[in-house]
Amino acid sequence: MKGVNVALGAAGLAAFLALGEAMPRLGLVKEAYFPPTSRIAGALADEVTDPAFWSALGDTLTGWALGLAIASCAGIVVGVVVSVVPNLREVTASTIEFLRPIPSVALIPLAVLLYGTELRSVLLLVVYASFWQVLIQVLYGVQDVDPVADETARSYGLGTWARIRHVLWPTALPYVMTGVRLAAAVALILAITAELIIGAPGLGKLIGVAQASQAVPEMYALIVVTGLLGLLINVGARTVERRALAWHQSVRGEVAV
């Protein structure tokens, strides 16, 4: 079944690339706005030989990785504290629901005002957007803890940290991994967006420069790179999730199927 899925995916990708090659050559779209796949591939080959491309890629990955790490740690710690401290979740519920829906792009003027086009501007947007993905999942995970197991741990005299380690954390970990996986994708989106709009160093800035200079094939080539980067991040996150949750029923069932 897995081999069939891979073959179907490859066939779909090949059909998509063929369609991208044929449409501009047949005049269905203007080649000036949507160049054929072969031209985009050629531009991509040129990009990977340019040191500036690899420098921009490193800047994007730096902003993504640092932002994701900060957001994940903060989301886990805050989520556990809010869930464990009595009445704290009720006190903070309205604040969380107020702040969470605010789009991170709405903070771009603030980021520029505070940090200009530095890496810290990218981190501000990435951390803000990714933090909520992790926090909400941690809150749901802690809420899913079996009250009987928690009361049993209390009756055996386990302290707060022992209950967090042996009862709360194993239950919440699947939710945490889901939150981190979602946050990884969101972090990449915000990193590219910040670079594109603010002009911070990275792939987003290169895309903006290519668009402004009418280098359309190069622009599409860089967009393809961001798509491949997102794919690799998603695959990597799922791989880490499966290994971290190898003991969990959901992963064992997935492997069995």
UniProtKB/TrEMBL annotation:
The chain crosses the membrane at residues 64-86, 98-116, 122-142, 172-199, 219-237. Its main location: membrane. CDD domains: TM_PBP2. Residues 57-241 form the ABC transmembrane type-1 domain. It is found in: Cell membrane. Gene3D superfamilies: MetI-like. It is a multi-pass membrane protein. It comes from the Bacteria. InterPro entries: MetI-like, MetI-like_sf. The keyword Transmembrane helix applies. The keyword Transport applies. Pfam families: BPD_transp_1. Keywords: Cell membrane, Membrane, Transmembrane, Transmembrane helix, Transport. Belongs to the binding-protein-dependent transport system permease family. This is ABC transporter permease subunit.
